[in-house]
Amino acid sequence: MKKQASLPEPREGVRLQKILAEAGIASRRKAEELIAEGRVQVNGDTVTELGTRADIAKDHIRVDGKLLQGTQEHRYFMVNKPRGYVTTMSDPERRETVVDLLRETARKSGRKLDVRLYPVGRLDYNSEGLLLMTNDGDLANNLSKAANSVQKTYLVKVAGQPTAEALEQLRTGVMIDRGRLAEVRGTRRDRVLTAPARVELARRGENPWYEVTLTEGRNRQLRKMFEEIGHHVEKIRRIGYGALTLDVPMGDFRELTTGEVQALGRAAAGKSVQRKQRPSEHAQLKRSGQKTGSRGARPRF
Fold it and tell me: CA nearest 242: which of 157, 132, 86?
């Protein structure tokens, strides 16, 4: 590995992580990791300093040896993620990713998807529903920072029937563990109080469904909240994010409109946005007996 480049100070240009994000390589946070790992070169020298600036018009910038071709046009997509996919660019366990899903769906439907996209936030492996994907690193970064002010709505199926008192606990806030569900942090548990949530019954039954709206994005928060009141979560489907409502079939995707992108920008800035009053069929529970959420339920092209 070559030594850190000795770049003159002060150096004109833009911070390297911003250049990578605008080029569609990764979100700005991930771009910082690429730089720190020594995977970025400027004019032949490996750069690991996050404050490094460069000029895309003058400097030769490479990531893993591949030359950047300049800023890409920003693109924004809504994806209906099935269970069984991870929301990362690659997976060390070699599980299929949402990037694999988009490529396969585009191929089967004859659509061209010639842009590198990465997910905004996460839906865990066993969750499904609305996921944003973009090559706009600034917006992705701002939405991640604004995670605690953007409304996210889910349909949640739980085992057993929570009492009215237990549901009220969720509405006012419950103490949950930080970090991963199975993580042990010494002899003391690291606990945090969740923000108030909106919880409404969506379908009755021995294992009922609830519509839950959060303004937080903690790790596996819904599962932890319901387990805290004594009920295991069986299924999770995200149906709303900011002003967006899920309106594409399982496994499919569509490009966002200009108005929707502007609404995401307002949400990222902490401003209130209005969601569609009438949810589409894809944001509602299926009739009894219909399958949903399995990998076999992908659209046919």
Answer: 132
List pLDDT tens digits, range 115-131.
888 898 889 999 999 99
| Whole-prediction pTM | 0.76
Collect all residues with Cβ–Cβ distance below 8 Å to 285 and sequence separation of at least 6: 155, 202, 203, 209
Residue 274 to residues 34, 82, 121, 167, 227, Cα–Cα distance (Å): 37, 26, 21, 26, 31
Q: How far apart are CA 232 and CA 224, in angstroms?
A: 9
Question: Which of 124, 136, 247, 252 is an active site residue?
Answer: 124
Could you tell me the two tokens for 245? 């409502």
The yes-or-no answer on residue 55 being catalytic is: no
| 213 burial type by CB count under 10 A (0-12 exposed, 13-18 middle, 19+ buried) | middle
Q: How many CB atoms lie within 10 A of CB 180?
A: 10
Token code pair at residue 253: 């995707």
Rounded CA separation 257/58 (Å): 34
- What is the rounded distance in angstroms from the CA atom of residue 113 to the CA atom of residue 247? 20
d(CA 117, CA 131): 12
**pLDDT digit string (tens) for 29-57?**
888 989 999 999 999 899 999 889 988 87
Q: Which of 299, 264, 220 is nearest to 77 (CA)?
A: 264
